[in-house]
Design goal:
With 495 residues, this protein is of the alpha+beta class. The protein is built from 24 helices and 5 strands. Helices cover 62% and strands 7% of the residues. The chain has a 5-stranded antiparallel beta sheet with strand order 1-2-3-5-4. Helix 17 crosses helix 20 (409-419). The protein is elongated.
């Protein structure tokens, strides 16, 4: 088969080229209109090459199964559009859809080759995309057939009902006899559950005239559950992590006490000259839209409110514990401040009347990478204790090296802030800033703001591309295409 491939197509089977694309997080995409068995074989070879280069060859069988199901699903979706055109039926009309589906399945099974051969002349195609982002690996299969509203609802409803059942026989009884809607998705979901991958990691996204099925997986499936399981133990083992300074803790307790008087809080803050100066500086950063610059603690409290002061007090305590000294730490804090500023700007733009979100946005953005900063700021004895802990537990060196380097930093960061008794909203923003769709509903809005702010920074640094971003979050901010995203960045940068 390879003799019929173009030079560019053959390059995607070159391990060195694939490895380079993985390291640079460059998506690998292949678009086909005529999906022959030979082309299916080619797509699978690309997938195998990709997984080998990620040292995930043990997962080839499982991910190949996912790819086959998704390709077959896209192939059937395109054939369905051709069939409806030939029958003079409107696929976006619910009555026509019901009528066409009564005979489509039988016709498709008996005429698959014909449907394959005429997809190109009808302008229909499928695209497989593989890409790595942070610690995740994504498999996508898209086709240029827009999903109808009722089609999506039927598939989604059957999947949800099936997954609520623990009885395998009942699960497959939910599948529609006419179209098999949801069968492939349920099979994939049940298989991935065995690896601890939640069902929300399988998404159906329909934008413009493109329908995409996306599967999000840990970059290292073999170590994913292992790293997650030991994160809590590691966080608890770091005894040398400094607690928040006593003055910060005392003021925080006072701020959390509903019976406290404002004057009492202001007086306690004013007793610490350094704390007062830091708070005024942060209030100025977190209330940049206000014309008046705060000059004292009383003005600061009036500008951002007690909730805002509480959040900024926690940020100051974090700064004091994790003072940047090395170049790496300074870069991390610079990124943190950029994310904080973008998060605040997004909060004003999209939630301008919600005082809670505006109060939380800046500090949540500022502290989102605290898990990374923690290890960069750790004292030598902390790292030494961590190494001893890992040796005692027989944890491989590559695992704790990944953790020290930032792997699973969101989970570790959230565990540390829980240890420091931070407000839930800050902990949630830290824990879910890479996985916003998994965030609890009560904190989803602020998590999505921090996620988008972080994405804006990485996009401008060319660390990620637009297609790597979570489409559900983008849609919630009214963004469906890259040009809209670029216009938003331009607007925020001009504030």
């Amino acid at each position: 088969m390879e003799q019929y491939l173009t030079e560019q197509e053959l390059q995607l089977l070159n391990p060195q080229i694939v490895q380079n694309m993985i390291q640079k997080e460059i998506p690998i995409s292949v678009t086909v209109s005529h999906l022959t068995q030979e082309m299916k074989h080619y797509l699978k070879k690309i997938l195998s090459t990709f997984l080998y280069q990620m040292k995930q060859e043990s997962m080839i069988e499982y991910i190949d199964y996912c790819l086959t199901e998704l390709i077959d699903n896209s192939q059937k979706a395109n054939a369905k559009r051709i069939y409806f055109q030939e029958q003079n039926l409107d696929i976006f009309n619910e009555q026509d859809y019901a009528q066409g589906m009564e005979t489509f399945k039988i016709d498709f099974i008996s005429n698959q080759e014909r449907y394959q051969s005429c997809q190109e002349e009808k302008g229909l195609s499928m695209t497989m995309t593989l890409f790595v982002k942070d610690e995740s690996f994504f498999l996508e299969v898209a086709n240029n057939s827009k999903l109808t509203v009722f089609e999506y609802k039927r598939i989604h409803d059957r999947i949800m009902r099936a997954l609520e059942s623990q009885d395998p026989a009942q699960i497959f009884s939910y599948i529609n006899e006419q179209e098999g809607a949801g069968l492939g998705f349920i099979s994939i979901t049940l298989m991935l559950r065995k690896f601890g991958i939640p069902e929300e990691n399988i998404q159906i996204v329909s934008q413009e005239n493109i329908t995409t099925i996306r599967i999000k997986l840990p970059k290292n499936m073999d170590e994913f559950q292992y790293i997650s399981a030991i994160s809590k133990e590691i966080a608890e083992s770091l005894q040398n992590i400094p607690q928040l300074p006593e003055n910060i803790s005392r003021i925080s307790r006072l701020l959390e006490d509903p019976t406290s008087e404002i004057g009492e809080i202001i007086a306690l803050i004013q007793q610490d000259v350094t704390l007062s100066a830091d708070l005024i500086k942060l209030v100025h950063s977190a209330s940049y839209r206000m014309k008046k610059t705060p000059t004292n603690i009383e003005d600061s409290v009036k500008m951002v409110g007690l909730r805002g002061v509480r959040n900024l007090i926690y940020a100051i305590g974090t700064f004091q514990n994790l003072t940047p000294t090395t170049k790496t730490k300074k870069i991390m804090w610079s990124h943190a401040k950029d994310v904080g500023n973008y998060a605040l700007a997004l909060a004003y733009k999209f939630y301008g009347t919600n005082k809670k979100i505006i109060s939380d946005a800046y500090v949540c953005g500022l502290l989102h990478d605290i898990g990374k900063i923690l290890f960069e700021a750790a004292h030598p004895e902390t790292i030494h204790n961590l190494v001893n802990f890992c040796n005692t537990k027989h944890i491989p060196a590559r695992v704790y090296e990944k953790i020290i380097g930032g792997a699973n930093h969101a989970e570790i960061g959230s565990l540390i802030t829980q240890k420091w008794n931070f407000p839930e909203v800050i902990t949630a923003a830290i824990e879910f800033h890479h996985t916003p769709t998994s965030a609890p509903e009560s904190h989803r809005q602020i998590v999505e703001i921090v996620y988008l702010a972080n994405s804006i920074c990485h996009y401008q640094d060319q660390r990620i591309t637009f297609r790597c971003m979570e489409p559900t979050v983008l849609s919630n901010f009214g963004i469906t295409e890259e040009k809209q995203f670029q216009l938003l960045i331009k607007e925020l940068n001009n504030i």
